[in-house]
TrEMBL record:
GO biological process, one term: phosphoenolpyruvate-dependent sugar phosphotransferase system
Protein name: PTS system, trehalose-specific IIBC component
Active site: 35
Cited SUPFAM superfamilies: Glucose permease domain IIB (SSF55604)
Native source organism of the sequence: Spiroplasma floricola 23-6
Keywords: Kinase, Membrane, Phosphotransferase system, Sugar transport, Transferase, Transmembrane, Transmembrane helix, Transport
InterPro entries named among the record's database cross-references: Glu_permease_IIB, PTrfase_EIIB_Cys, PTS_EIIC_1, PTS_IIB_1, PTS_Sugar-Specific_Components
Signal peptide positions on this chain: none
GO molecular function: kinase activity; protein-N(PI)-phosphohistidine-sugar phosphotransferase activity; protein-phosphocysteine-trehalose phosphotransferase system transporter activity
Transmembrane segments: 120-142, 162-183, 195-215, 280-308, 328-348, 360-382, 394-419, 431-455, 475-496
One GO cellular component, as annotated: plasma membrane
Gene that encodes the chain: treB
Amino acid sequence: MGVLKVKAESENYQDYKILRDSVGGSKNIDSINRCSTRIRIVLLDISKLNVEALDNTVLFKKYVIKENTLQLLISKDIEKITIEFLKVLKISYDSVPNDFDISITRKDKIFKRLTDGISIIMKPIIPLLITLAIVSTLANIFTGIKFGAQTLAELNKPLEVIGNIFLMLQDALNLAFSVLIPWSIFRLMKGSEAIGISLGVVLCFFQLAGITQIIDTNSTTFHWPLAFIKNGEGWAQEQGYPWRISLEAQILPLVGISFIAVYLERLFTKKSIPVFKEMVAIPGITIVTFFLSILVIAPIGVMITFGINYGVLWATTNSIAKYIFNPLFGLTLPWMVVTGFIQIFVVVNMQQFTMYKGTTIMPMFTQLNIAVAASVLAVSIINRKNKDVQSVSIPAYSLAFISGSTEPALFGIGLRFLYPVLAASIGAATGIIITTFAGIGCTLGNASLLIFLSITQNSSVLENLNIKTIAGGPYLWMAIAIIATFIVTFAMTFIFSRIKYFKNINDNVLERDFGGKLNEIK
């Protein structure tokens, strides 16, 4: 994790400092996790805990001690308090992939570190992704949804112009997403953010060929339509070397070349030589990285991107494969969110949308979010007498239903009780089978109850995605899928809660995380 120099800027800085010292310092903290009402600090050695020191704080007078965990009851601004406490521990919030479950001294495995790394890179770009989702939804309302026999854009010229403006803005934001990836990596690695932005622009420059120009979306073959090196000898003369490839929408190659550029910057600026950085290092980084990208990374990267996009599209739409891959994908989706592996499919979803102007993954993300929300709603009803459970679960499932954000529900409730996650897996797979059978395609948007605004009926997009919608239309079948997901998940959560094994887990979690003897310093 990154290290942050801390200044006593927060009005509660002394409280955070006392809390850090009372738990035995940052080296005695294994992990920190939170829900909407409690911050739980898991300690390596509970004997080092000095709760009497909390008497001198304002924020941390209510607490519960369970096993090796100090649980702090927070009445408001819990996210802000968590972030500010991390600063006192000299942990940069930018280096934290998920503030609901933060490893401090615990060493994660390589795969977990990889998925966490993707989360950290995407984190500062999230506002742009939200904007892109909203713009894509608005563009779809004008150009992808049929009101009767026509879309709004087909009704009259002014509406067509408005639809085209949204489509143009959508394409521009797609480009901005690719440009900001190098910037995010330079920012994370404490490099020059200006070089990161410049690198993003030159690697996605409009004179370079985008992936949609190079790859025929209606064919499985790979071809190079541009005239590349014409005057070379041998192979280069006969075949043409593909050196004019843009890295727009090629997320993994962009990440790779950006890290290379960061380390080049560190190498070039290792020694402090007057004027060297401005006159040699910065131009050198851009030139070397650009040549390395267009001559090596981009040609390889475009084949990787094509392979991933086509592989996922085939698995999700092939007449046989889709009934195997999609339900299995649904069963594992909640666990992907918990492990962070979901970030890889978020990237694939973006690449698929950029290439095909639609996505087969969004309908499945929607079933996941509805299933998680339904499972937490069921847990809330099962444990309706526990006020702490209610205070955590109600905002969590409401957020999942409306916005599609499932982290508070999964980390605050689902993962603790376990059986809601199992129920959500079954429910999501049920809904996904229906959307797969019906043939539903979406643009980017909100994977929640608002998904109806992102369902597309654009024939060219559906053709690109190899999707054919059955009789009844996509809106009816999406509604049926959501209802089925909700009912199955809700019912399975109740059924699991009656099994002795899960009933014991339920009681233990209530005692450990949502109960216990409350200690309050007056």
